[in-house]
Amino acid sequence: MSAAQPPWPDELDALVAAPTHHTLLLENERLRVLDTRVERGDSVPVHTHRSPSIQYLASVSDFVRRDSDGLITADTRETTSSLQAPLIHAIVVELKA
User: Fold this and answer.
1) Do residues 60 and 52 lie in contact, with contact meaning Cβ atoms separated by under 8 Å?
2) Domain presence at residue 44
3) Long-range contact set of residues 72-80: C-beta below 8 Å, sequence gap at least 24
4) What is the pLDDT of residues 1-38, one digit of tens each?
5) Cα dihedral 4→9→14→19 (10° resolution)
6) Which residues make Cβ contacts (< 8 Å) with residue 30, sequence separation at least 6?
7) Within a domain: residue 91?
8) Full domain range(s) for residue 59
9) What is the pLDDT of residues 38-97, one digit of tens each?
10) Residue 2 lies in a domain
């Protein structure tokens, strides 16, 4: 298998751009598994995931997503039900091509 080079720079990879929030659990030639944790109120730097991924959400909380210009693209606080977990915790399985 050969992986196509993603269209963004390496410095935007989740482990490089947001290492406080991502921990590498496993990596081989077929996949990469990350443990992702975002405490309520944290700001996570703009980052990407290098390959298509599946995310298992162990817990969720309200979040505001912004693009690289700082404009809000999603805000769960505007929905009718609030998510009250103390953090977002996800296991991210990135599938390499």
Assistant:
1) no
2) yes
3) none
4) 445 666 778 899 999 999 999 999 999 999 999 999 99
5) 140
6) 1, 95, 96
7) yes
8) 10-95
9) 988 888 888 888 889 999 988 888 778 778 788 888 787 776 566 677 888 999 999 987
10) no
Q: Is residue 75 part of a domain?
A: yes
Instruction: Look up tokens 């700082």; give the residue.
Output: 70
- What is the per-residue pLDDT for 3? 54
C-alpha distances out from residue 63 to 34, 67, 78, Å: 19, 13, 10
CA distances from 44 to 22, 31, 36, 74, 81 (A): 10, 23, 11, 14, 23
Instruction: Specify the number of domains making up the chain.
Output: 1
| Strand-strand pairing, 72-75 and 31-39 | unpaired
Question: If we measure between CA atoms, which residue out of 94, 86, 97 comes closest to residue 38?
Answer: 86
Mark 40-57 as b/e (b = at least 16 C-beta within 10 Å).
eeeebeebbbbbebeeee
Residues 6 or more apart in contact with residue 49 via CB below 8 angstroms: 13, 14, 34, 92, 94
The pair of structure tokens assigned to 15 is 């482990």
Residue showing tokens 């298992």 = 56
